[in-house]
Amino acid sequence: MSTAPVDRSRARSARLLWVVVLLLVAGAGLLWWASALTWSSRPYRTSFSGDVTAAATGGQVRPELVPLALAALAAVAAVLATGGWLRRAVGALTMLGGVLLGWRVVSWLAGPAADATPPGAPAGAEPVGELVRSPHGPALVLLAALALVGAGLLVALRATRMPAMGAKYSAPGAERPKSTDPDKRLWDALDEGADPTDER
Q1: Do 136 and 30 touch, CB atoms closer than 8 A?
Q2: What's the rounded Cα separation, in Å, for the pair 29 and 48?
Q3: CA angle 142, 147, 148 (to 5 degrees)
Q4: Using CA atoms, how far apart are residues 19 and 22, in angstroms rounded to an integer?
Q5: Separation of first and last alpha carbons in the chain
Q6: Which of 11, 34, 41 is nearest to 142 (CA)?
Q7: Burial class (CB in 10 A: 0-12, 13-18, 19+), 144
Q8: Long-range CB contacts (< 8 A, 24+ apart) of 77-86?
């Protein structure tokens, strides 16, 4: 019996899992980066200190960015450790998080200038210039949202095709479900240290 089709199938499954992991890690990194960038700034004038510029970072404008970055990293562990409907649920939640992120950024960009006014302006200061919104932070968040939606969609649709660490590293006495695929049964037997050609 040729093991080439089995090897190719396993390689595709592993590649799919790595794509999901990379998308989640990229999404987390982009969110973290966007939270540190300046999203808006405005110059102010005070009678004592002269002209100052107040700026707002992504973490101030959208406080959920860092928690969502941590959630994306947690989703990596969840995708690797789970399988079946639980993994699909992780994928659906990840996809929903990406959609909500995109909506939040678009609503901020399309919102009134008052919503983008940076905090930290000195008391009694008067604005002396236009509010400047930087596109870089929101663009990174939109890229992160796309990465999370893509990862969530792949997990939700292809959960059963990706290998699960939890199944391979289960407790020694735990009963594993038997596969109907003869090739998979062969590999499962080899993983357990049994002789697959032994009819007993």
Answers
A1: no
A2: 41
A3: 95
A4: 5
A5: 20
A6: 34
A7: buried
A8: 79/17, 79/20, 79/21, 79/24, 79/155, 79/162, 80/17, 80/21, 80/164, 80/165, 81/164, 81/165, 81/166, 82/164, 82/166, 83/159, 83/160, 83/164, 83/166, 83/167, 84/159, 84/160
Alpha-carbon gap, residue 53 to 72, rounded angstroms: 34
Look up tokens 């004038």; give the residue: 45
Which of 90, 80, 82 has its CA nearest to residue 14?
A: 80
The structural domains of the chain, with segments of one domain joined by +, span: 9-167+176-191
- Cβ burial of 52 (10 Å; 0-12, 13-18, 19+) is middle
Spatial contact of 14 and 163, defined as CB atoms under 8 Å apart: yes
Reading the chain (200 residues) residue by residue, the pLDDT tens digits are 455 555 566 667 778 888 999 999 999 999 999 999 999 888 888 777 678 888 888 998 889 999 999 999 999 999 888 878 888 899 999 999 999 999 988 888 887 765 666 776 767 778 788 888 889 999 999 999 999 999 999 998 887 777 666 444 444 444 455 655 666 666 676 666 666 566 55
The single-letter code of the amino acid at 11 is A
Please choose, from the candidates 137, 144, 148, 131, the residue with its C-alpha nearest in 3D space to the C-alpha of residue 35: 137
The pTM score is 0.72
pLDDT of residue 171: 45
